Every structure is written in C-alpha cells, then in structure tokens.
C-alpha cells in the first residue's frame, strides 16, 4: 500500500497529522500504522507523560475527545490511541462532538483511531468530515489473486531470495491472513543463511506445509495420469478449502 508507506515514512520523519482514523476489513495494515505511531513517534521519556492508549469497549467518544483536548506535559505533542475503536458506540451527540473536533483539532494532539474489521458508514456526516480533513484511511483486504504478488513484494523487502512459485505456495497454504504470513516470513528471514534460497523443503520443515498435498503435486499427478494420487490430493485439498482457495487452485492449474 503506497499510502501506508507514506504514512510510515512521515511518522519516522516526525511529520504527523492531528487525526488518523484507520478503518477497514484488513487489520494488518491498521496494526502497522498504529504500531509506528505508538512506538516510533515519541521518545520513551515522552511516552510516560504524553501517550495514552485506551480500548473502545472501555471508553466513549466523549472521554476520548476530553483526553485529546488536554495539553502535553514536558513536550510538544501528546498521542492518544484508541484501539478496537469499532467497539465505541457512536451516538448522534457523540458523532456531532467528533465532527466538531475533526473540524478544529488540537494541534498538539495526535489522535489515532484503530477501527478494525469494517468500514465507517460513508453516508454519515462524521465520515465525510474525516474525509474532508484527509484524516480517514481505508485498509482494504488483499484480493486472493493479488496475494502471491504481495507475498513476493514482502519477500523482496525482507531480502529473501525465493525459488519459483514460492509466493503461490505460501498463498495457498497460509490463506489471506496477512499477520500470519508476515510472522512466518520474519521467522524464515532469521532461519535462512546468507544467500540461501527459500524453497519448498525449507517451508515444509519450518512452516509445516506438506509437499504431498499441494497444487504442484496435483499438477504432477495429473500430468503423469496418476489417478490415485490426484484424487487423494484433491480430496485432502477439498477438505481444507480455507487453506486451498478454489480460485487460486484453478489459476495454478490453468498456468
């Protein structure tokens, strides 16, 4: 996500907005941005006085806005982070209060909302106000057909050399759980020696993916007309549709 890359770069350079409202179905990108604001913006000494983290189920918009209107102690900025903001109840009066704050935020406060697993209602005035203030950031899920490319890009960013089709293999068996994929890639990065190429054997040994039951072995069984093996593999994959998305199976077989 180019927008996310820009956000992370600006945070690193201490160039922040007064409000960040992250929302959408993909929690991974929201977590990355919030983690950067939580850990990389203020110094450790500043965090003790000027950083507050609350959770949606334990607070209200009125309480959050009250915190946001306070001024930092012994520093220029304070950070207020609302995690699990989707659990906040947005009554009409609170919606109006949030809308007013968006229109006139406190310059010394960085107010962050992590609204996961769903989008804000685009019809609401507060959503339009956030959009107008350029404070609304949508985190969309990666489409299944784009997942191998995303994995390949992550491997490149981590400087992991891969054998052909490895990104497709990981996509098939890890699904579109980006957090899990990222964790597995980071583990593999530590395991791999300098110059070592990530291949199916390494994945099988360290992630637990069995080479016996994957689309490549299915292709081989079909190509050699080994009906017994083909049906066995297809039966296993059919019983695990989450780890073996049908659309990706067809794409691999077509290729």
Superfamily at the CATH H level of the largest domain?
P-loop containing nucleotide triphosphate hydrolases
| Number of structural units classed as domains | 2
By CATH, the topology of the largest domain is Rossmann fold
* Helix coverage percent: 40-55%
Judging from the principal axes of the Cα atoms, what is the shape?
elongated
Radius of gyration from the alpha-carbon trace, in angstroms: 23 Å
Structural write-up:
- This protein has 255 residues and is α/β, with parallel strands linked by helices.
- The protein has two domains: 2-138, 3-Layer(aba) Sandwich (Rossmann fold); 144-254, Helicase, Ruva Protein, domain 3.
- Helix content is 52%, strand content 13%.
- The protein has 13 helices and seven strands.
- The chain has helices at residues 2-12, 27-39, 44-50, 61-68, 92-103, 125-132, 147-157, 166-174, 178-191, 200-207, 215-223, 227-239, 246-254; strands spanning 19-24, 51-55, 78-83, 109-116, 136-138, 161-162, 197-198.
- Strands 2-3-4-1-5 form a five-stranded parallel β-sheet, with helices on both faces. The protein has a two-stranded parallel ribbon with strand order 6-7.
- Helix 1 runs parallel beside helix 2 (27-39), helix 5 (92-103) packs parallel to helix 6 (125-132) and helix 11 (215-223) runs antiparallel to helix 12 (227-239).
- The longest helix is centred in the last third of the chain and has 14 residues, at 178-191.
- The protein is elongated and about 70 Å long.
- The mean pLDDT is 90.
